[in-house]
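Section 3.1: Structural characterization of target chains.
Under the original work plan, the team committed to producing a structural model for every single-chain target entering the pipeline before any wet-lab resources were allocated. The record below documents one such target. The sequence was received from the expression subgroup and is listed exactly as submitted; it comprises 477 residues.
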Amino acid sequence: MNLHDYEPGDFYDELFIEQGQPRLDAIPLVDRINSLSMEELQRRQQSAQIALFKMGVTFNVYGDTQGTERIFPFDIIPRIVSANEWAKLEKGLKQRIYALNLFLADIYDEQKIIRDSVIPAELIYSATGFFKQCMGVKPPEGIWCHITGTDLVRDRAGEWYVLEDNLRCPSGVSYVLESRRVMKSTLPLVFETMNIQPVEEYPSHLLETLLNLAPHHLPDPTVVLLTPGIYNSAYFEQSFLAQQMGVELVEGRDLVVSDGYLQMRTTKGLKRVDVVYRRIDDDFIDPLAFRADSLLGIPGLMEVYRAGRVGLANALGTGVADDKVIYSFVPAMIRYYLGEEPILANVPTYLCWEPQQQSHVLANLDKLVVKCANESGGYGMLIGPHSTQAQRDEFAEKIKAQPRNYIAQPTLSLSRVPSLIGDQFEGCHVDLRPYVLYGKEIYVNPGGLTRVALKKGSLVVNSSQGGGSKDTWVICQ
């Protein structure tokens, strides 16, 4: 079997228009894959997976009986995004992040968007990611969301939609960088013939973004990456990014507030820290300001941060913009703050806190996807068409008990990419998470993490739920 036998089916396919007809940008890739035997493709697939494992590209799953550390599944057939498509996505992502940043600055200060009745106050105050402790905070340069991972999907017609925004501690970019390294050795001839935008500049852009948070009078500011520790699901990525940027990887116990500044314990004594790239949620970062039982954070950090003596990325309080109920208002934010129409559309969303919309959701649970407002990783979710009556009954009770905590969306026919499953090419559903950095200007790394549902027919792409990843090739203009 070769790719010309692959049947795209009744979905938008990222590589094929129809059976035997690859999209223009995909022709060199398809030709190269078809020149290799299935045995050779399987060998390269296995070699790529082994290479990633040897690099340490794994993830952790808490409470799993098979052990915590897992190989991150990877498929060697990439996803291709055309230059014109990427230009629109990049423009739309910059618009969205700019508006979200203005929203965060407003919501923790004058709250004009509430006073002007664009967003109901109760939705803001009931969001678990909204922290009154952050009211009046002025982050450096007025930037709140320095690192964002925005999840995109496309439907049966090939139209792009924003599925959700991740502004707290978005993960996955290390898989993008390491997958590209592996793909260059897996399909080297294709890289020689196709003009693919590089992704390797991300760590240097990230470091530049972080340095932008330091007081400008400092000649050599100290940046650290704060990790929850080795048992965190994204610890590989945290250590990888610290190494790539050339900054210290620290835990909360390595840091202390002393003389009004954040300081790092070293063999030569305390050393001032100017910028922290935090991979710890707000709740745990300072037991004096947030959760008193946290053993991960640094007592007194909030006071130093509020005084402007340390920069944090992302700013504390950004989680309110992660809330899936607040997500539904992002198009309104773009119109309110920018006076523009959104370039990228949201997935149509029903808010269960509104009685009429809740009634519609409850009557159509077998057709909708229901999501908990603050869950991630594929948890707290009901996929109606694939659910049992018992599961729908359970979710109906949850919605009625906590309507603010749930949204519902139509079941999208996610686009697919051919994937090597055993000795067959199967069409597997994908999403895309580009990574956006907001420093002196907004930078979108070309491509992003293409997550793929490697279980046949599955719509769940999260690694913790059996998904994997593909390299994402953005074609140059």
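Residues 289 and 302 are 7 Å apart (CA to CA).
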